């Protein structure tokens, strides 16, 4: 349960589970989710429940690479990380430098910040 959260009321979320971007309403009573409204698909209900108790996000960015045609290689997390850690994950990745060659799918950072989530390259970068 979030700080300052009394476990009752209606909460509003914008779903990012699919391209529709549904506006969701979640009703909670005594710490239990009673109803989710506004979703056009099953992903919307799942998103609202997850977002309410444990918001998470995928992280996509780039890291520095030496010996390749371009100075940065795109990377992403293999799963969503706690939303509160997104900036810290990005800060860790700002300090990472890899060396070509790199293949798409190579692990760039294993178990980032102890989350159990790896950061992988999303593009191959051959050495020049």
Account of the protein in words:
16% of the residues lie in helices and 35% in strands. The chain contains two helices and ten strands; from the N terminus they run βββαββββαβββ. The strands form three sheets. A five-stranded mixed β-sheet has the order 8-5-6-10-9. The model has no long low-confidence stretch (mean pLDDT 93).
Q: Which SSEs are present, and which pair or pack?
A:
Elements: E1 9-14, E2 23-29, E3 32-37, H1 42-53, E4 56-57, E5 60-66, E6 72-77, E7 81-82, H2 86-94, E8 97-99, E9 107-109, E10 119-121
Parallel strand pairs: 5-8
Antiparallel strand pairs: 1-2, 2-3, 4-7, 5-6, 6-10, 9-10
Percent of residues in helical segments? 10-25%
Spell out the helices and strands N to C. Answer: EEEHEEEEHEEE
Note poorly predicted spans.
none
The overall average pLDDT, rounded, is 93
Instruction: Tell me the number of helical segments per DSSP (H or I, 4 or more residues long).
Output: 2
Shape: elongated
Give the tally of β-strands. Answer: 10
Which structural category fits the helices and strands?
A: alpha+beta
**β-sheet strand percentage:** 35-45%
Characterize the biggest β-sheet: 5 strands, mixed
Integer-rounded radius of gyration: 19 Å
Kindly, what is the distance between the CA atoms of the first and last residues, rounded to a whole number of angstroms? 51 Å
Strand order across the largest sheet: 8-5-6-10-9
């Amino acid at each position: 349960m979030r700080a300052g959260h009394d476990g009752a009321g209606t909460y509003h979320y914008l779903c990012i589970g699919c391209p529709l971007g549904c506006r969701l309403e979640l009703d909670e009573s005594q710490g239990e989710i009673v109803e989710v409204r506004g979703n056009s698909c099953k992903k919307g209900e799942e998103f609202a429940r997850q977002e309410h108790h444990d918001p998470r996000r995928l992280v996509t960015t780039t890291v520095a690479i030496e010996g390749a045609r371009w100075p940065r290689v795109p990377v992403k997390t293999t799963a969503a990380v706690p939303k509160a850690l997104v900036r810290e994950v990005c800060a860790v990745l700002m300090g990472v430098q890899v060396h070509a060659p790199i293949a798409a799918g190579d692990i760039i950072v294993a178990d980032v910040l102890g989350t159990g989530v790896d950061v992988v390259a999303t593009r191959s970068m051959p050495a020049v």
